[in-house]
Amino acid sequence: MPRILIPIGGNEKKSPDSEIFREMVNLAGGSKARILLVPTASDTPDERARDYSEVFSAFDPASILTVHIGERPDAASAELLEIIEETTLFMFGGGDQLRLSSLIGGTRLHAALLERYQSGECVIAGTSAGAAVLPEVMIFQNNRFRLFRKGGLEMTKGLGLIHDAIFDTHFVQRSRISRLVHAIASNPALLGFGIEENTGLLIEDETRARVIGTGTVIVVDGRAIEINHIGYAQNRDAFAVTNVIYSVLTPGVIYDIKRRTVVDPGPVAPPKSIVPTRESARMPRGDP
């Protein structure tokens, strides 16, 4: 079974006719899905869990449970670890991603989550902060961040479900291209995905990604960067960076993360071109 990871850009449509929710539940087993909601990132976890429980209930899964980690010892509960063994869909809600990484990272819950994901028997999804925390590296703070200037961007270790990638959410709505370029310039080995609201990226085996939902996913690829002065610029100063590859993916487009290229343009494609050949140009046109 493929490993499935679904980062969502936030503010997703919470409705049974949502492609994002339908994909999550179907991949988790449909009517046999066992869903675990994790609203730990939120200031109002009870309210957040209630909202998600309501929309997931419309799909009539086998079970929907909520776990809120308030302190790190809670992530070592024997009862919780037993529940995780049967969970087929983890859903991390939005809020502050640093709460997720600081309360879950390095705990028995974290280890169990990684094990379930690696088995291919459990879909891992997250929205907004819950998406940002999924990779090995995450952005967690802007401190007086200025557009296309060095500094003010803080990054730390995420949950490590995917490597050499970074997810930024609410991407179009909050004009976050400059901070994702900053993150990629700081280490061009990373591949940046800026995910629009009500949009997700369905990733199989950390390799094949398909855009779902209604918006776009912006890919920022720094592998071909030539000039990169971020290491020399002073804080708050502009830095030069050239040859950054910037792509816009729409729903249905499939992207190969390892090769960093589109492998399927999706359902919207132009008609085939008609280009005359030399032979056709020499053909007589017939009598006038």
Polypeptide structure, described:
The protein is built from 8 helices and 15 strands. It has one domain (4-282): Class I glutamine amidotransferase (GATase) domain (Rossmann fold). By secondary structure, it is of the alpha/beta class. The model has no long low-confidence stretch (mean pLDDT 95). The longest helix is centred in the first third of the chain and has 13 residues, at 45-57. It has a 9-stranded mixed β-sheet with strand order 3-2-4-5-1-10-11-14-15. It is globular, with a radius of gyration of 22 Å.
Number of helices: 8
Radius of gyration: 22 Å
- Contiguous low-pLDDT stretches (5 residues minimum) are none
Q: What is the count of distinct domains? A: 1
What characterizes the major β-sheet?
9 strands, mixed
Name the strands of the widest sheet in spatial order.
Answer: 3-2-4-5-1-10-11-14-15
- Give the helices and strands as they follow along the chain: EHEHEHEHHEHEEEHEEEEEEEH
Highest CATH level, the class: Alpha Beta
Report the CATH topology name: Rossmann fold
CATH architecture: 3-Layer(aba) Sandwich
Question: What do the pLDDT scores average to?
Answer: 95
Looking at this structure, what is the CATH superfamily? Answer: Class I glutamine amidotransferase (GATase) domain
**How many runs of DSSP E, i.e. beta strands?**
15
SSE blueprint and pairings:
Elements: E1 4-8, H1 19-27, E2 34-38, H2 45-57, E3 63-66, H3 78-84, E4 89-92, H4 97-104, H5 108-119, E5 123-127, H6 129-132, E6 137-142, E7 153-157, E8 165-169, H7 177-186, E9 191-195, E10 199-204, E11 208-213, E12 217-221, E13 245-249, E14 254-256, E15 261-264, H8 278-282
Parallel strand pairs: 1-5, 2-3, 2-4, 4-5, 8-9
Antiparallel strand pairs: 1-10, 6-7, 9-12, 10-11, 11-14, 12-13, 14-15
